[in-house]
Design goal:
Blueprint (H helix, E strand, L loop, with lengths): L4 H4 L2 H13 L8 H14 L3 E6 L3 E7 L6 E7 L26 H18 L5 E7 L7 H7 L2 H4 L2 E10 L7 E2 L3 E4 L1 E10 L3 E2 L9 H12 L1 H5 L7 E10 L5 E2 L2 E10 L2 H22 L2 E8 L4 E3 L1 H15 L4 E2 L11 H7 L2 E7 L18 H15 L4
Parallel strand pairs: 3-4, 3-5, 5-16, 6-15
Antiparallel strand pairs: 1-2, 2-4, 6-16, 7-14, 8-12, 8-13, 9-11, 10-12
Length: 387
């Protein structure tokens, strides 16, 4: 079964929704106008309940099917990125320094398209909970929605989400049971030494030398402390120090991102990070302050639900365009909190060639919206069939 005929008929309307959202990006939890636009669409679609103000600007809308049954959750994130868009398209961001460079405008559109179809047809039992979530990029809105009780409040039994994937073949679905995306932790290290003239380094305690030693040594966490069959990334992403060519500064600081899948490796990485920084600080005679923040947990798909979702994807895109045993990746997603709370699965949907995610030239491919909407709709109809 390809794209559902009714949803194919919504294509132009969906394009209009998506491009409006693209032109008006909002960040983190402050998705007030985005939420208002979604609510307006949901009312026009004819959903049965609309619940707002969850995680500040999040929404859960309920669609009732025919007869008693469970509740399935479908999630779309709706926040943008703090980035200056360079697409040059007519529907480009109208807000300086903000852009939908990750395609969350497309995710919202796909879920709205599915909602329109499901509201018209009602060929399912039980209920559908349409989850529109803020703050995926920054703030962990998925965690906040779970903490505020959406799973229990709306009786959600299983939950699903999809993310667009530029440069994956158009219409291809990719997922895997078990860990799909990594946990992400962030560390900031501030070093304090004693500054002075660059011509007399022996009279100083140089934080730059200490930082350089630490940055090199931290790479040994992956190469010497972790099994080669485990997955771990330790990347130093920022380093800052100094103001002039002839001054040894008082301070230096650097930042790292640490990505892992298993709790054991995650704990090991943090322990070794702290030991290496403190040990080198003592050796170089500097003071070190470490702020180590645990971020999103790994996104772990549930096997039965992943197999089910992949089978639905085959209906939409065909057997050759579904990879249900794909390699996991080191990116992170706060849908992980929803998968910790309920069984479900997360999938990627290929949108064809183009600029990558988080690139200023990225723009979601509108041709993919009916595919994602059809996937969501069939997921519901097959998970909670009438007969």
């Amino acid at each position: 079964m390809p794209v559902l005929n009714a949803i194919a008929g919504y294509a132009e309307e969906m394009k209009g929704w998506r491009r409006h959202l693209h032109a008006h990006p909002e960040l983190a939890f402050d998705c007030h106008d985005t939420a208002a636009f979604i609510v307006e669409r949901l009312r026009a679609i004819g959903v049965d309940e609309i619940h707002t103000g969850i995680a500040r600007t999040g929404i859960v809308a309920i669609l009732n099917g025919q007869g008693e049954g469970p509740t399935i959750g479908l999630r779309a994130d709706m926040d943008a990125l703090p980035i200056e868009e360079t697409t040059g398209v007519a529907h480009a961001s109208t807000v300086k320094g903000r852009a939908h460079s990750c395609g969350h405008d497309g995710h919202v559109t796909m879920l709205l398209g599915a909602a329109k179809y499901l509201a018209e047809t009602r060929r399912f039992r039980g209920r559908v909970a349409l989850i529109f979530q803020p703050a995926e990029e920054d703030g962990g809105g998925g965690e906040v929605m779970v903490q505020e009780g959406v799973m229990d409040r709306f009786g959600i039994g299983q939950v699903y989400g999809i993310h667009n994937a530029p440069n994956l073949p158009f219409g291809k679905f990719v997922t895997t049971p078990g860990p799909l995306m990594a946990a992400v932790d962030t560390a900031w290290v501030r070093l304090r030494g004693r500054g002075g003239h660059g011509a007399t380094p022996h009279e100083t305690v140089d934080p730059i030398i200490a930082a350089a030693g630490m940055v090199q040594a931290l790479q040994s966490i992956v190469s010497r402390n972790t099994s080669a069959i485990e997955s771990l990334v330790v990347s130093i992403t920022q380093i800052h120090a100094g103001t002039a060519s002839n001054i040894i500064p008082e301070e230096a600081w650097f930042c790292a991102t640490i990505r892992s899948f298993s709790p054991q490796v995650r704990d090991l990485a943090e322990r070794r990070f702290r030991e290496i920084v403190q040990g080198h600080a003592a050796a170089y005679g500097v003071a070190a302050e470490i702020a180590y923040e645990r971020g999103y947990p790994p996104t772990v798909n549930h096997p039965a639900e992943t197999d089910f979702a992949a089978d639905v994807a085959r209906e939409i895109s065909g057997v050759d365009l579904v990879d249900a045993r794909a390699d996991r990746e080191m990116g992170a997603e706060d849908f992980s909190y929803m998968l910790e709370a309920r069984p479900g699965a997360y999938l990627f949907l290929g949108t064809g060639p183009g600029a990558g995610l988080h690139h200023p030239a990225f723009d979601f491919n509108d041709e993919a919206s009916p595919i994602g909407a059809s996937f969501f709709a069939r997921l519901v109809e097959r998970a909670q069939p009438l007969s």
